[in-house]
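Dear colleague,

Thank you for sharing your sequence with our group. We've completed the structure prediction you requested, and as agreed, I am returning the results in plain text so they can be pasted directly into your records. Please verify that the sequence below matches your submission; if there's any discrepancy, let me know and we will rerun it promptly.
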Amino acid sequence: MAAPTIEQRMKRKYVVMTTDQATVERLAAVTPPEWAQVVCTDFEELGEWDDVLLFRFLLLDLDEWEVFDPLDVIRALRMQYQINTPVFCFGGDEDIQDEMRMARADRFFDRDEMIERLPEFFRQYAWGE
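Please find the predicted structure tokens below.
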């Protein structure tokens, strides 16, 4: 396993876990050109521990129970990989949000608010240049 290079570590990229193409497009529309959006529905697609570390934050759709289990994603990130990458959740009901809080997800928004707040996160996590 090759260690990530400094250049790879400095790239600005984030993960969106959803199948909602309209949400993906809305997020992409507010994503600055220097940021890369990586869309997936399987946490393992992101790679090994050192690959996952390269992402600045993760956006997790809590309405995707039929595609992936959001609790499995946060548990893998926090317990298996022991990574404290920020996880911003959108959608879902109060019950799943409470479970995600206990599993150490960071913040919760409705879909529209997630789109509105995304530019703030780009500024906040734009370190390195």
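Summary note from our side: The mean pLDDT is 93.

Kind regards,
the structure core
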